[in-house]
C-alpha cells in the first residue's frame, strides 16, 4: 500500500472489464479511493469492493458527467482528485469506404469527445489538486493498420489532444501522460469482431469482393493479438507508475509490440512502414 495514495481519489472510466477493471483493482490495492466508471448497475455491483466505488458513467452522457463532477468536487471526506484515467473505449474496424458515417461518429463520440468531456468535467478539480490526466492511447495512435481507420483516427486525435493539453496545463501543475499499449488480452477483440461482422453485413457486393481478403486478415490478426497480447494487469502497473512517479514520462508504451513499433514508426519512411504493416497482416505487398 502506497502511503501517499490513501486519502486521494482516482477516477477510472470504462472499469467494467479489461484494462479499466485491472487498473481500478490495482489502484485500489495501492490505497487510492477509486471512482470506477461503469455503464450498468449489474457491473456496478460486480466491481464494487474495498476502496472501489462504482459510478454510473457513460462518457457520452452529459448528466452522468455532471454527476461525476459533483461527486468529485463534493467528496464527503474532502479527498483531492489525484488522477483521471481516461480508459473507456470501443473499436469499430472496417475499411474507410465501407464504414458508415454513423459508425465513424460513434467511434469518435466515445473515444475522442467522451474523453475530452471527462477531462473538461474534472480539470477544475485536477487544477486545484495539481493532479494528473492519464489517457489510454494505443499503438494504433502511431501506426494505422488497414481497417483501423476509425479506431486509429480517434486514437491519433486523442494523442494530439493529450499533447496540446500537456502543454496548456504543465505550468498550472497538472501532468498529462499517455499510456500506449500494444495488443492486450481483453474483450475489445471480441467486441471489435462483432462490430466488424455487423459492418461487413452492410457492405455492397463490390465492397465485399474488394475488402473480403482484408477483413479476413483483420480477423486473423486481432485473434492473434488476443492470444499473444499482454495481460491487462501489465497496463494497470504502468498506469500506477504514471500516477505515482515523481516525474512521470509524457508517454509510456506497454508490451514488446508497442515498444518496437512506436519508435520504429518515427524512424522509417511511410512506404517502408506500409510494407511492414501489410506483412504483419499477411496481406499482399506492392
Ligand atoms: N485491448 C487492446 O488490445 C488495447 C490496446 C491498446 C489500447 N487499448 C485501449 O484500452 C482501453 C480499454 O479497452 P480494453 O482493451 O480494456 O477493452 P474492453 O475490455 O472492451 O473495455 C472497454 C471499456 O470501455 C467501456 N465503454 C465503452 N463505451 C463506453 C462509453 N460510451 N462510456 C463509458 N464506458 C464505455 C466498456 O464498458 P461496457 O462494458 O459498459 O461496454 C468497458 O468498460 C480502450 O481505450 C482501448 O482503445 C486496448
UniProtKB/TrEMBL annotation:
Family matches, as Pfam families: adh_short
SMART domains, per database record: PKS_KR (SM00822)
Domain Ketoreductase residues, every copy: 8-187
Coiled-coil residues: none
Protein origin, superkingdom: Bacteria
Family: Belongs to the short-chain dehydrogenases/reductases (SDR) family.
PANTHER family associated with the record: 3BETA-HYDROXYSTEROID DEHYDROGENASE DHS-16, SHORT-CHAIN DEHYDROGENASE/REDUCTASE FAMILY 9C
Identification of the protein by name: SDR family NAD(P)-dependent oxidoreductase
Source organism (scientific name): Nocardiopsis lambiniae
Amino acid at each position: 500500500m502506497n502511503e501517499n495514495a490513501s486519502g486521494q481519489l482516482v477516477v477510472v472510466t470504462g472499469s467494467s472489464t479489461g484494462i479499466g477493471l485491472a487498473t481500478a483493482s490495482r489502484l485500489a490495492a495501492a490505497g487510492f479511493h477509486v471512482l470506477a466508471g461503469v455503464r450498468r448497475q449489474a457491473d456496478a455491483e460486480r466491481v464494487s469492493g474495498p476502496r472501489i466505488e462504482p459510478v454510473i458513467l457513460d462518457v457520452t452522457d452529459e448528466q452522468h458527467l455532471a454527476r461525476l463532477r459533483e461527486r468529485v468536487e463534493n467528496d464527503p471526506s474532502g479527498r483531492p482528485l489525484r488522477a483521471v484515467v481516461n480508459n473507456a473505449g470501443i473499436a469499430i474496424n472496417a475499411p474507410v469506404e465501407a464504414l458508415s458515417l454513423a459508425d465513424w461518429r460513434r467511434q469518435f463520440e466515445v473515444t475522442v469527445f467522451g474523453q475530452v468531456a471527462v477531462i473538461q468535467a474534472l480539470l477544475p478539480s485536477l487544477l486545484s489538486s495539481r493532479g494528473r490526466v492519464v489517457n489510454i492511447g494505443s499503438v494504433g495512435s502511431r501506426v494505422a493498420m488497414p481497417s483501423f481507420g476509425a479506431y486509429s483516427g480517434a486514437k491519433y486525435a486523442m494523442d494530439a489532444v493529450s499533447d496540446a493539453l500537456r502543454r496548456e496545463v504543465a505550468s498550472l501543475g497538472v501532468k498529462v501522460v499517455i499510456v500506449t499499449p500494444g495488443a492486450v488480452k481483453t474483450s475489445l477483440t471480441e467486441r471489435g469482431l462483432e462490430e466488424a461482422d455487423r459492418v461487413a453485413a452492410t457492405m455492397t457486393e463490390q465492397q465485399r469482393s474488394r475488402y473480403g481478403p482484408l477483413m479476413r486478415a483483420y480477423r486473423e490478426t486481432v485473434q492473434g493479438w488476443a492470444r499473444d497480447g499482454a495481460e491487462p494487469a501489465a497496463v494497470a502497473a504502468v498506469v500506477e507508475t504514471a500516477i505515482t512517479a515523481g516525474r512521470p514520462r509524457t508517454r509510456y508504451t506497454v508490451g514488446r509490440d508497442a515498444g518496437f513499433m512506436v519508435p520504429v514508426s518515427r524512424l522509417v519512411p511511410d512506404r517502408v512502414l506500409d510494407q511492414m504493416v501489410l506483412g504483419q497482416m499477411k496481406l499482399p505487398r506492392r
